[in-house]
Amino acid sequence: MAKSRSTQSRDPNKRVRPASWQIFMVSFFLLYMLVPIISTYVFSVATRWDRTILPEGYTLEFYKRAFAASYFTITLRNSLILSLATILVSLLVIVPTVYWVHTRLVGAKPLLDILMILPFGIPMVVLALALVQVYNFPPLARSPTLLIGAVVIYSMPFMYRPVSNAIQAVDAQVLTEAGQSLGANVFQVLYRIIIPNILPGILSGSLLVFSTVFAEYTLTSLIVGAKFKTFPLLLVEFTRINGNVASAFSVISFTIAWLVSILILWVGSMGNTKRTKTIRAR
Question: Which residue in 6, 68, 72, 175 has a CA-CA distance of 20 to 30 Å to 127?
Answer without folding.
Answer: 72
